[in-house]
Amino acid sequence: MIDPIIHSSAAITLIGGGEANTVDLKEALSIAPICVAADGGVVLALEAGIMPEAVLGDFDSAPSAVLGQIPPARLHRIDEQDTTDFEKALARIDAPVILGAGFLGGRVDHQLAALHGLLAFADRPCVLLGRDEVILLAPPKIALPTRAGDVVSLFPLADAAGQSAGLKWPIDGLNFALGEKIGTSNAATGPMSLQMEQPGLALILPRRLMPDVVAALCQPDAARWPARGR
Question: Domain 6-131 class?
Fold first, then answer.
């Protein structure tokens, strides 16, 4: 088990080197006020005038001139190539929820790797910010103030089953599995809730729900998945 480097009782914004801009970062920080950068994400942080609390990664995509602007005590170089910088950061952040910007968009393989990270670190609640949507691993239970007609997509990263309320097509009795059953393009009929039996389902929601998702995951009684064997 890897010991965390960053401990916080508040939500943390994690910035990556993918598609994100200063507007995305500042919106994320308005909800999750502590900034941590994953390797090349430090570039965007400094462009936005934000000094990150920590920079985590193998530093293969962060220019040395940029790293030179960061106090040495905030630089945490992790020299291994078995995990992505996103996973390196997830493993070392202990917070109620992590809000990730700069991990979606751009190269498809990078996005798939980020989804892998959500499942690999199911015990570290993380919400990924996209251009129009947010993506998270569905927690054991969650209730959200969706509106009728909101697109709610459910995509299995591993076999998963659960129950729903407030969806046009309920998921009760369904077994989600890649190549067999997916749940994209479902729709809310009003406020919705999910209760999952195991980690494995990616939940994709409209971006405007980002504050509500983060708030739900930060509740003192919010259920979390146990750590997976790593």
Answer: alpha beta
